[in-house]
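Appendix B, Record 12. Input sequence as logged:
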Amino acid sequence: MTQNNWAGQQLPPVKSKADLVYESLHAAIANGELRPGERMNMDELARNFGVSKIPVREAVRRLESEGLLVSRAHSGVSVTEVDKKEMRGVFLARGAIEELVGRLAAENADETLLANLDQVQDAIRKALDTGAVTDLPRLNSRFHHLLAEASGYRILGELTEHLMLTIRRYRIVAPIAISNWRSVVEEHELIIEALRAGDPDAAARAALEHTSAQARHEVPDED
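Logged structural output:
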């Protein structure tokens, strides 16, 4: 039997109990249900999920490898905290990636991408107008995910997702002001304008300036 025997065949997706526990905990960390520094009770988790400790341990190990959980002797497992110094590095990395993503997205932009970005922008404006501030982090991540996806490189999407998750977690303990969210919308518009014009240089510049502006708001240099 050769590899060609499986050509065109697709296996149905099967998720293990560990996968389901992982996805649930990952979402809870991203949404702030599990806050930075919060301790995890493995026995309680197993009871709540209705599983043995084995899939819980597997999920926790995976989250530890991603830096979302940390295990310490005598204190157990807790959600990793993010400090201001670390966030400066996150914004530096994000600036470099966003600049590249903006350039590549402008080269690949089509009407579908622009329509999707406009839709997210409308949803952010609606959330601001109605006071649905809890929707803003998810919508903002969606905007940047669309840009990264348009770059054409999976690795840029994965890096963007990781950095945006770290920023979302930081904002749980250091939320940004509504006025800053309105600035985010304006900065997004400059990126969209550059994409619509098919100008890679302008898109790269707008993306970098957006990230730099947010860094100045959230992790200003200390004198």
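The longest strand covers residues 69-72.
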